[in-house]
Each structure stands twice: as structure tokens, then as C-alpha cells.
Amino acid sequence: MQNQVDPKADILLAIGMIIFSAVIYIGSLELPPPRYEPMGSAAIPKGLAVIMTFLSILLVIRALPHLKSYEATKTKITDITPRPRLAVAIFAITVVFIAVLDFGLLGFMPAGVLFMTAIGYLMTHRDLKRLPYVIAFSVIMVVGNFYIFTKIFYIDLP
Q1: How does pLDDT run across 62-88, given as a tens digit for each residue?
Q2: Residues sharing a CB contact under 8 Å with residue 122, sequence separation 6 or more, in sequence order
Q3: pTM for the whole structure
């Protein structure tokens, strides 16, 4: 028998995501109306909140039929190694990234490239052979996102 995902966990996750989406949607209602751009700055958070809600509802619908047929396995076979120090390090790097942007120490592009490179380096088990690929990926993602948000969506990034 395959390892099954607990449908109760799926339903709880979906309910949490629906609540989170509602908070985002309600928070985006307070954003100022558009002046120059066609969609306004509230369009993206509202759209993402609606998409997350829709996908969460689909998750609940898929999990409901499996509630009665789910059998909890007593022995879990997994190849996943827990890395709690990595989680703490990524959280700390994220806080530093937000602080750097908030205090205006660096702009979005250099701070974003450093942030993504540091996280990519840590997540590849600090493999120096992969570092050039991580840096290239970071530069492409940050520069691409910067131009998408500033030139297409007209959202200013720090």
C-alpha cells in the first residue's frame, strides 16, 4: 500500500489557507485606488487570495472522500532528513532581508540576489560546485521579477 496523506491534515491546511486568503483579501481592500496604472496595486493580492481560496476548496473536495478509508500507518518510511537548523537559518536570513529593504540599506535587486543566493547555497547542502548555478538562477529570478513588477504591473519595488 502506498503512503497516504492524512485527509484531516489536508482539510486543516486548506481551512488555514482559506482564512489566510481572507485576511489578505480584506487587507488589500485598504490599498489606495489606482491613479495611473490600469489594475491598481490591490489587483495582485486580491487575485492571489482568490486563487488560493479556489485551490484550497479543491483540496477539501479531494480529501473528503478519503476521510473514512484512510488508515494511519504506524511505521513511516521516509527519505527526508529533518534539518531544523536550516529552517532557523532561512528564517533569520529572511528577517535580515526584510530589515535591509526596510531600512533602505540596499535596493531590491542587490538585496534580492544576495538573499536568494544565500538561501540557495544553504539548501544545496553548501555545495560550492552548485554555487554558480545558484547565483545565475538568483540573478535571473530577481531581475526578471523586478522588471515584471515595475514595467508590467507598475508596482514600485524598494
Answers
A1: 999 888 887 766 556 667 778 899 999
A2: 86, 89, 90, 93
A3: 0.60
